[in-house]
């Protein structure tokens, strides 16, 4: 029988990361903000197989440049679970589709224009190469891997996100540094006995995120969760 405590901790972390992965809408907007106009980005400096990063407020989105203003990137999306219509799926992913995709652990590796991928943010090129030194694959191999994986896929904020996708394509190993950093930060907060308030808030978040009544959550999830994280 699997230990429910690590599973509960994993679920809690995924719920917390969901809160920082939603793209914020501009004030007063009833829908998705429009992406940058075509030609907004100078793609002449991009090469096929480049790893592109778009820093957001609380996270980073990643993609692999395929050439001709096309970027392959992994996005949580509920739509591929209900339809195979490429015209519908290829439309810009809304927050509703993204959130439902995270909850149901469904996603797609899709090809979008640089403008749709970056969504108005600044772009860093091959910024992660310094972390992998001699592990960088050839540009064509990176692009080929990305193209081969295009389509519906499973999704996990912790174990299979956009960073796992690009690091596999360009470096041959699926890793996510921002996920590791997030998990370590949460563990440090919980391990610090002086952070009583933070621990209480995380515990309350577990009750809300896991959808359990306090009477059942506290003895079965809340206390073992902190013991496991502190271990």
UniProtKB/TrEMBL annotation:
A single Gene Ontology molecular function, please? phosphatidylcholine-retinol O-acyltransferase activity
Q: Which PANTHER family match?
A: LECITHIN RETINOL ACYLTRANSFERASE
The gene designation is Lrat
Bilayer-spanning residue ranges: 196-229
What membrane topology is given?
Single-pass membrane protein
Give start-end ranges for the coiled-coil region(s): none
Q: Per the record, what are the reactions this protein catalyses?
A: 1,2-diheptanoyl-sn-glycero-3-phosphocholine + all-trans-retinol--[retinol-binding protein] = all-trans-retinyl heptanoate + 2-heptanoyl-sn-glycero-3-phosphocholine + apo--[retinol-binding protein]; all-trans-retinol--[retinol-binding protein] + 1,2-dihexadecanoyl-sn-glycero-3-phosphocholine = apo--[retinol-binding protein] + all-trans-retinyl hexadecanoate + 2-hexadecanoyl-sn-glycero-3-phosphocholine; all-trans-retinol--[retinol-binding protein] + a 1,2-diacyl-sn-glycero-3-phosphocholine = apo--[retinol-binding protein] + an all-trans-retinyl ester + a 2-acyl-sn-glycero-3-phosphocholine; 1,2-dihexadecanoyl-sn-glycero-3-phosphocholine + all-trans-retinol = all-trans-retinyl hexadecanoate + 2-hexadecanoyl-sn-glycero-3-phosphocholine
PROSITE patterns membership: LRAT
Q: Which residues form the LRAT domain?
A: 51-178
Q: What is this protein called?
A: Lecithin retinol acyltransferase
Query: What UniProt keywords apply to this chain's record, in alphabetical order?
Result: Acyltransferase, Cytoplasm, Endoplasmic reticulum, Endosome, Lipid metabolism, Membrane, Sensory transduction, Signal, Transferase, Transmembrane, Transmembrane helix, Vision
What EC class is this?
Answer: transferase
Catalytic residues at 162
Where is the protein situated, by its record's location annotation? Cytoplasm, Perinuclear region; Endoplasmic reticulum membrane; Late endosome; Rough endoplasmic reticulum
Keyword Cell division assigned to the entry: answer is no
Q: Which organism is it from?
A: Caloenas nicobarica (Nicobar pigeon)
Q: What span is annotated as the signal peptide, if there is one? A: 1-27
Q: What is its EC number?
A: 2.3.1.135
Report the family membership.
Belongs to the H-rev107 family.
């Amino acid at each position: 029988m699997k230990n429910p405590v690590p599973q509960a901790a994993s679920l809690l972390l995924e719920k917390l990361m969901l809160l920082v992965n939603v793209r914020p809408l501009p004030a007063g907007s009833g829908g998705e903000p429009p992406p940058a106009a075509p030609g907004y980005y100078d793609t002449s400096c991009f090469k096929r197989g480049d790893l592109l990063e778009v820093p957001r407020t609380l996270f980073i989105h990643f993609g692999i440049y395929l050439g001709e203003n096309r970027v392959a990137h992994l996005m949580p999306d509920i739509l591929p679970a209900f339809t195979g219509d490429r015209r519908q799926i290829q439309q810009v992913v809304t927050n509703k589709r993204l959130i439902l995709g995270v909850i149901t652990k469904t996603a797609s590796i899709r090809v979008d224009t640089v403008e749709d991928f970056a969504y108005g943010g600044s772009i860093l090129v091959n910024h992660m190469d310094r972390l992998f030194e001699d592990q960088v694959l050839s540009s064509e191999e990176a692009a080929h891997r990305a193209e081969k994986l295009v389509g519906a896929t499973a999704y996990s904020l912790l174990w299979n996100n956009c960073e796992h996708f690009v690091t596999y394509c360009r470096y041959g190993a699926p890793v996510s540094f921002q996920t590791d950093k997030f998990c370590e930060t949460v563990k440090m907060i919980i391990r610090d006995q002086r952070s009583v308030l933070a621990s209480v808030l995380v515990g309350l978040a577990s009750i809300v995120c896991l959808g359990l009544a306090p009477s059942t959550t506290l003895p079965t999830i809340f206390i073992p969760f902190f013991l496991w994280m502190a271990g």
